[in-house]
Specification:
Number of domains of chain B: 2
Keywords (chain A): Cell membrane, Membrane, Transmembrane, Transmembrane helix, Transport
CATH class of the domain at 88-293 in chain A: Mainly Alpha
Number of helices of chain A: 15
CATH superfamily of the domain at 88-293 in chain A: MetI-like
Number of helices of chain B: 20
Oligomer: heterodimer
Low-confidence stretches of chain A: 1-26
Region (Disordered) (chain A): 1-25
Structural class of chain B: alpha/beta
Largest sheet of chain A: none
CATH superfamily of the largest domain in chain B: Periplasmic binding protein-like II
Structural class of chain A: mainly alpha
Order of helices and strands of chain A: HHHHHHHHHHHHHHH
Domain ABC transmembrane type-1 (chain A): 94-307
Number of strands of chain A: 0
Radius of gyration of chain A: 24 Å
Subcellular location (chain A): Cell membrane
Protein name (chain A): Glucose/mannose transport system permease protein
Chain lengths: 322, 410
């Protein structure tokens, strides 16, 4: 998430404005400038090609071999993929990824936006509240998982506390219930990441022109209607940033599950990243692990490709209009 | 002379001294994961003996078996292996043996008559293709039932249960006394250890091995089905927050008198000792009810090929030190395990370990799944048993069928 945070201020549009200004300042011939830019980027390109693309290709290649502890060149076709999809635990992992992904992203967006709006109402102690709401994000998923593991333990945490206070029928045992364990993971994820969405959305809200508010008030439009019909539709870029950051978090979810449920009870809250790590380092199952990571890569590409296509279409249309 | 030159001279003198020092001694870089209190004390026994006999031990300990494994594999692949690495017996290292990446210690094994000293079914797990590749260090019994004496007294239980029927009758008594009968560690690897303990009690040492070897008749036998039934019945005797519990937290429940029994390896003994409890008055240890034998896991040392004659010598010396009868006993005492050799004086070990030694002498030890099947298959069995525990809707027949698939295909 650290890398993600660095990119967050670069909302779409900001980059475009900078580059058009740059073109206007061109003192040197354009080709020389391009060559300089190219040379500056060469080391980065080498790193990208060798480290990212290279290892990616190697992983994909290994997924077609019978590698166990060590990489081998004994090709077995799609055998590892057949094994993978015959493994109950992998299927559960994929289902959990969908459940977690949808609920986590949607939940963070809704809670984060509501928090941002309530802070935007110029409440007192806004700074204090903002700090409190953002604070969980300063904790790693491991710490979050441990904290919630204690809170949700039926004999130590919230359940026992409520019962001690007199509400004897109170039940909150999601972590130990195999049908609800993945929702316990979602809950702790929401607690951790909603603050981030709040900050992003609040920044967006503060960017909305005050004139719009005044005009809407004059027309006597209710506040909620102003938010729903006028303000929120302007927050597209903030929303896109938030969704991208959260989605990256979803795909690599590992530490939260390890700390909170360790995939249990049974394999009820397993996630793909944990499946891959276990097989890679614990079970000497290199072929199976690389097959699983290849499936993950394809899934991510399948989601990203239409989005990237839509972006480029929009860009082309915008250029066409100019 | 300036201060800088003085410092440089000083440094180079030190360098010469230290390299001369290294020439006399056989340097060995040893990777292991023994980092907790008792483990570190145990490894020191080996270190001291190794250094005293002309070696020079340098420690490369990495906490956590999996991260250590990752580092170990990548060092072997990059051609820079350590001198030795602590591993477990059996198939864990098989692939490295097959690929010719490990040195064998046949000469040391022959000179030390390892084949006579080590039980036959364990000796068979030390090598591959006629060579001995692993030097066995010590063994842990895994099918122990630790119990709280005060809880047994409170519930009116006079003696250790001798059969599973007696066991469940006793657990009912503990339940009636308002306590938790079984302190359950709710992680799949721990659940599999309990399953193994029951399996051994039903099938015996030979049948246990056959079941993991994928013998269909054994897996479909009544003994196996009874194992599944007993294991499933235990769900009624654990507390609601057992899921995900660490083994030492479960041990703490027995220590504090909240729960009656815990099934765990003999490393749990360390927790009782650290809590100041006395064996025989505060807690007791028994093998799982009705079992004639013991499930074990063992530590051994593997020796990667380094291509350096000096390293080969250091490896031979280390193998020799490890199998020294005195070292075997000292190490076991510190680690809470027991020696691999049948021919050592074990009178100084505690009452628990004595029971283990008796099983070992009688040849009644069953190597666990991590020794006799590949890590991939072991992982599949772990997943299955963990899932079965969490899902009471799964039938016994389903478990039988999936177990057979797990040990044959992985």
């Amino acid at each position: 998430m650290a890398a993600g945070r660095e990119t967050s201020p670069r909302l779409p549009g900001a980059g475009k404005a900078a580059s058009s200004k740059g073109r206007g300042l061109a003192g040197k011939p354009r080709r020389l400038r391009a060559a300089t830019a190219f040379l500056t980027l060469v080391p980065t390109w080498i790193v990208v090609l060798v480290v990212y693309v290279g290892t990616m290709i190697w992983s994909i290649q290994l997924s077609f071999t019978s590698s166990r502890m060590l990489p081998t060149a004994n090709y077995v076709g799609v055998e590892q993929y057949r094994r993978l999809f015959a493994t109950a635990r992998w299927i559960v992992s994929l289902q959990n990824l969908v459940i977690f992904g949808v609920l986590f992203i949607a939940g963070c967006i809704v809670i984060g936006t509501l928090l941002a709006i309530s802070l935007d109402r110029k409440v007192r102690f806004e700074n204090a509240f903002r700090t409190i709401f953002l604070y969980p994000y300063a904790m790693s998923f491991i710490v979050t998982g441990l904290v919630w593991q204690w809170l949700m333990n039926p004999e130590l945490g919230i359940q026992t506390t409520m019962r001690a206070l007199g509400w004897t029928s109170f039940t909150f045992d999601w972590v130990v219930d195999r049908n609800l364990a993945i929702y316990a993971v979602v809950l702790s994820g929401l607690w951790q990441s909603s603050g981030l969405v709040m900050v992003l959305m609040l920044a967006g809200l503060r960017g909305v022109d005050g004139e719009i508010w005044r005009a809407a008030r004059v027309d006597g439009i209710p506040t909620w209607r102003i938010y729903v019909s006028i303000v929120l539709p302007q927050l597209g870029p903030s929303l896109a940033t938030a969704v991208t950051l959260l989605a990256m978090g979803v795909v690599k979810t590992y530490d939260l599950v390890v700390a909170l449920t360790n995939g249990g009870p049974g394999s009820a809250s397993e996630v793909p990243a944990k499946f891959i790590m276990d097989n890679l380092f614990g079970r000497q199952n290199l072929g199976l692990a690389t097959a699983a990571s290849t499936v993950m890569l394809i899934t991510v590409l399948a989601i990203l490709a239409p989005y990237a296509y839509a972006q480029s279409m929009r860009a082309r249309r915008a250029r066409g209009a100019v | 002379m300036t201060r800088l030159t003085k410092a440089l001279l000083c440094c180079s003198a030190l360098l010469i001294a230290s390299s001369a020092h290294a020439d006399d001694k056989l340097p060995a870089e040893v990777m292991h994961s023994w980092t907790s209190g008792g483990e570190a004390a145990a490894v020191k026994v080996i270190v001291d003996a190794f250094n005293a006999r002309g070696g020079e031990w340098s420690d490369a300990s990495i906490a956590g078996f999996e991260s250590a494994n990752a580092a170990y594999t990548s060092r072997i692949l990059s051609g820079n292996p350590p001198t030795a690495r602590s591993v477990i017996f059996g198939l864990d290292q098989r692939e490295l043996m097959e690929q010719g990446l490990l040195n064998y210690v046949d000469a040391v094994a022959a000179a030390g008559k390892w084949s006579d000293a080590v039980p036959a079914n364990l000796y068979a797990t030390l090598g591959y293709d006629g060579h001995i590749y692993l030097a066995p260090i010590s063994m842990h019994g895994e099918s122990w039932m630790f119990y709280s004496k005060p809880v047994f007294e409170k519930a009116g239980i006079a003696a250790e249960p001798a059969s599973w029927d007696e066991f469940f009758a006793d657990m009912d008594k503990i339940k009636a006394a308002g306590l938790v009968p079984i302190a359950w560690g709710g992680q799949a690897w721990q659940e599999l250890k309990v399953f193994n303990a029951i399996l051994l009690s039903q099938l015996g040492v030979e049948g246990f091995g056959k079941a993991y070897a994928g013998d269909e008749a054994t897996i479909k036998s009544d003994g196996f089905k009874k194992t599944v039934e007993i294991f499933g019945k235990m769900r009624d005797y654990v507390d609601p927050s057992a899921a995900g519990r660490n083994w030492n937290d479960a041990t703490a429940m027995v220590i504090s008198g909240k729960a009656g029994v815990q099934f765990m390896g003999d490393w749990a003994k360390g927790e009782f000792i650290n809590a100041g409890k006395t064996l025989g008055t505060d807690y007791g240890c028994a093998l799982a009810p009705g079992s004639d034998g013991m499930v074990i896991i063992g530590d051994a040392m593997a020796f990667p090929k380094t291509g350096k004659a000096e390293q080969d010598k250091a490896q031979a010396l280390l193998a020799e030190v490890i199998m020294d009868p005195k070292i075997q006993v000292e190490f076991a005492k510190k680690k809470g395990s027991f020696p691999v050799r049948k021919d050592v004086d074990t009178s100084s070990l505690d009452a628990c370990a004595q029971k283990g030694v008796a099983m070992l002498a009688a040849g009644k030890v069953a190597p666990e799944h991590a020794i006799i099947i590949s890590p991939a298959k072991g992982g599949a069995v772990t997943d299955l048993i963990g899932e079965f525990w969490a899902n009471p809707a799964m039938t016994g027949d389903e478990v039988v069928e999936k177990f057979a698939a797990a040990v044959t295909e992985g």
